[in-house]
Amino acid sequence: MLEIYREACRVQRDGRLGDGGRARKVAELDDEILELCGPLWAADLPPLEGLDNDYRLLTNEVMRLMLAQELFTFVAAKPVKQPNGETQRVGATNNESERTLRAPAEARKTGRTNKTLTGARRQTILTSVLQSLRLYLPTFTLTTVLAEIQHWMEQGRSCFTKHLEKLKLDPPEHSVLDRVLPQPSG
Questions:
Q1: Rounded to whole angstroms, how far apart are CA atoms 112 and 22?
Q2: What is the rounded radius of gyration, in angstroms, for the C-alpha atoms of the chain?
Q3: Burial 43-65 (b: 16+ CB within 10 A, else e)
Q4: pLDDT tens by residue, 102-160
Q5: What's the CA gap between 114 and 98, in Å, rounded?
Q6: Average pLDDT for the chain
Q7: How is the chain split into domains, by residue range?
Q8: DSSP string, the chain
Q9: What is the mean pLDDT of residues 8-19?
Q10: How many CB atoms lie under 10 A from the CB of residue 118?
Q11: Rounded to the nearest 5 degrees, what angle is found at the Cα of 45, between the Cα atoms of 41 and 49?
């Protein structure tokens, strides 16, 4: 599976391929996934024990994503122009986002900060907003961050809300944060 993933990353970087070539390569990668995972998936096994069950679950998830054509979307996706003007390839994983938020998460976990749920929520929100602004603002400085926030206060909405509207997306009904760090009661 790892070799198939690495091949998908190579195909994404291959500047010689057009849209049709990428689509053909994705179909070939899907065939490799089917050959590798198909037999176990088709067996439709009940829950197993230990690592065997982990492998069964992984196989089922990989097949679900492949059949929904969601496994290799990053291969065919066009590079994305960020609001700050930079253009980046669509990532194959969320590793960059995970790395960005790792330090605050580690600080919470090791007890170096935020002894309360309220403090943990506050730091999570601030970190998320600042890291999102890093991608949004052409120049990320204290002055530009404060100017952007002042603009939000004057407009009554943030640049993120405007970006959702531009993309014709509805804002989420519930915050993921409420599941991870629920609102403190009382």
A1: 47
A2: 21
A3: eeeeeeeeeeeeebeebeebbee
A4: 776 676 666 666 677 788 788 888 888 888 888 888 899 999 999 999 999 999 989 88
A5: 20
A6: 86
A7: 2-76, 86-180
A8: -HHHHHHHHHHHH-TT--HHHHHHHHHHHHHHHHHHHHHHHHHTPPP-SHHHHHHHHHHHHHHHHHHTT-SSHHHHPPPEE-TTS-EEPPPSSSHHHHHHHHHHHHHHHTTSS--SHHHHHHHHHHHHHHHHHHHHSSS-SHHHHHHHHHHHHHHTS-HHHHHHHHTT-PPPSS-HHHHHSPPPP-
A9: 93
A10: 12
A11: 115
Quick one: 72 exposed, middle or buried, by C-beta within 10 A (0-12, 13-18, 19+)? buried
Type of residue numbered 46: P
What is this structure's pTM? 0.60
Amino acid making up residue 52? D
Q: CA angle 127-133-138, nearest 5°?
A: 150
Amino acid 180 reads: V
